[in-house]
Recover the amino acids of this structure.
């Protein structure tokens, strides 16, 4: 059987912030490769066939308006005559994975539920706003309850707070909706509370960590502890490897390969994928995080295949394919079937 070189494998990535860049930055455009690692030229050159576009907002007054601008941006991109194609079902996913042209599929996700429900508005009104986002985007792949801080649904990754009554009500609302819940920005307490409520109430809700690495490899509260890794594996979830230096290693770019090998060696061979977390960094004033990415990982045009080529002599060929696209494709197809 003819082998597919790692440099030409299709790629699925479960998290980027292109919508935030396009909404926020004056003069932003999808083709400005110098601005962001997930620009259209970068995605096409890297053979990215499905890119999850996060709708992000901080928890503050006006959060739903800010998220609404991004959902409208997603709709505009889907309707424009360019290489971005909104993917809404398993048939569309299979079709885009088989294309040999430069088209890139996209699907939306919500990074922080404050994007559809403000802190002081009725939860029912928030659910109506969520339905509007789903309608504008065609579908939503996953929802993160929080970001770094706490909100009305529970504690973010910089807190120790668990789930709230509204958080439980959100889980009940998502039962059977074919929308996954993302654990990448939860506190450990919130993640465990989400798992517990799903089990007690026997809810049908898929789970993933869209852009998180492994805490035993690099100790950071954005990375998964072993017990949550094992829960995601047990529940047929997905774990997207994050390329941000803060979550990889302060000094060693090769640590990203170690995260991947750690996950595979600990049972995540059918769960691991890419969740690079590319976002606009040129306007940042936080010099402590500079550089945000190691040069080996800083753009979609080369980073995925640099990693895959590093791994092709360390892993079976089939495992390299699983990491590139197959695990993510199977997860998404299972949700949408």
């Amino acid at each position: 059987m003819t082998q597919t070189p790692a440099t030409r494998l299709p790629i699925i990535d479960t998290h980027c912030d292109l919508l935030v860049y396009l909404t926020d930055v004056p003069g932003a455009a999808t083709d400005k490769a110098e601005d962001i690692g997930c620009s259209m030229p970068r995605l096409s050159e890297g053979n990215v066939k499905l890119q999850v576009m996060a709708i992000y907002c901080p928890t503050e007054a006006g959060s739903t308006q800010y998220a609404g601008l991004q959902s409208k941006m997603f709709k505009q991109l889907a309707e424009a005559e360019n290489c971005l194609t909104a993917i809404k079902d398993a048939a569309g996913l299979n079709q885009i994975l088989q294309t040999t042209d430069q088209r890139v599929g996209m699907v939306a996700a919500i990074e922080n539920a404050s994007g559809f429900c403000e802190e002081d508005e009725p939860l029912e009104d928030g659910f109506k706003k969520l339905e509007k986002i789903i309608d504008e985007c065609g579908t939503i792949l996953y929802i993160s309850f929080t970001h770094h801080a706490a909100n009305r649904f529970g504690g973010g990754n910089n807190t120790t707070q668990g789930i709230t009554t509204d958080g439980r009500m959100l889980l009940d609302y998502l039962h059977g909706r074919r929308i996954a819940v993302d654990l990448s920005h939860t506190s450990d307490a919130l993640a465990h509370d989400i798992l517990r409520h799903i089990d007690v109430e026997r809810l049908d809700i898929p789970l993933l960590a869209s852009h998180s690495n492994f805490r035993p490899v690099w100790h950071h509260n954005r990375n998964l502890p072993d017990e949550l890794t094992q829960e995601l594996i047990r529940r047929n979830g997905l774990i997207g490897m994050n390329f941000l230096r803060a979550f990889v290693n302060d000094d060693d770019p090769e640590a990203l390969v170690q995260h991947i090998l750690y996950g595979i060696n600990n049972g995540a061979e059918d769960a691991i994928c890419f969740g690079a977390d590319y976002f606009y960094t040129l306007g940042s004033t936080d010099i402590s995080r500079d550089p945000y990415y190691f040069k080996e990982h800083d753009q979609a045009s080369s980073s995925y295949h640099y990693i895959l080529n590093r791994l092709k002599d360390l892993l079976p060929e089939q495992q390299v394919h699983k990491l590139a696209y197959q695990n993510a494709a199977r997860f998404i197809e299972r949700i949408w079937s």
